[in-house]
């Protein structure tokens, strides 16, 4: 898996994990350590894919008046990406263990 694809998957997973708990894109971007523009782009893509839906608060005319909710498909994708992430981390751990073992010999 290419670095960029891996990074995008990890960022998408992070957004799917946090999106319902953080009130706005700026706060979400800060918690993820990336730009608001990048966060906005990924959220729009997740909405297009049907993984996230937006809900506008009644009587809200500003951009902060939106809430993001995971769809059933989004929850399934969150679970799938979590499994992928765990497998990647297991492989990285095993590789580090092999390198440490080689250095001891």
Would you state the CATH class?
Mainly Alpha
What is the overall shape? elongated
How confident is the prediction overall: mean pLDDT?
Answer: 86
CATH topology: Arc Repressor Mutant, subunit A
Helix content: 55-70%
Structural class: mainly alpha
CATH superfamily caption: Winged helix-like DNA-binding domain superfamily/Winged helix DNA-binding domain
Q: Radius of gyration from the CA trace?
A: 17 Å
Domain module count: 1
Strand content: 5-15%
Annotation, overall tally of beta strands: 2
What features would you describe in this structure?
The protein has 105 residues and is mainly alpha-helical. It has a single domain (3-104), classed as Winged helix-like DNA-binding domain superfamily/Winged helix DNA-binding domain (Arc Repressor Mutant, subunit A, Orthogonal Bundle). Helix content is 67%, strand content 10%. It contains four helices and two strands; from the N terminus they run H-H-H-E-E-H. The protein has helices at 3-18, 25-32, 36-48, 72-104; strands spanning 52-56, 66-70. Strands 1-2 form a two-stranded antiparallel ribbon. Helix 1 crosses helix 4 (72-104) and helix 2 (25-32) crosses helix 3. It is elongated, with a radius of gyration of 17 Å.
């Amino acid at each position: 898996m290419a670095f960029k694809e891996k990074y995008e998957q990890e960022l998408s997973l992070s957004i799917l994990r946090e999106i319902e708990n953080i009130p706005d894109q700026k706060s979400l971007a800060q918690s993820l350590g990336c730009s608001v523009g990048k966060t906005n782009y990924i959220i729009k893509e997740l909405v297009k894919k049907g993984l996230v839906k937006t809900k506008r608060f009644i009587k809200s005319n500003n951009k902060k008046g939106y809430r993001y909710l995971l769809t059933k498909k989004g929850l399934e994708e969150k679970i799938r990406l979590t499994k992928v992430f765990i497998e990647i981390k297991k492989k990285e751990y095993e590789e580090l263990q092999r390198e440490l073992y080689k250095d001891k010999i």
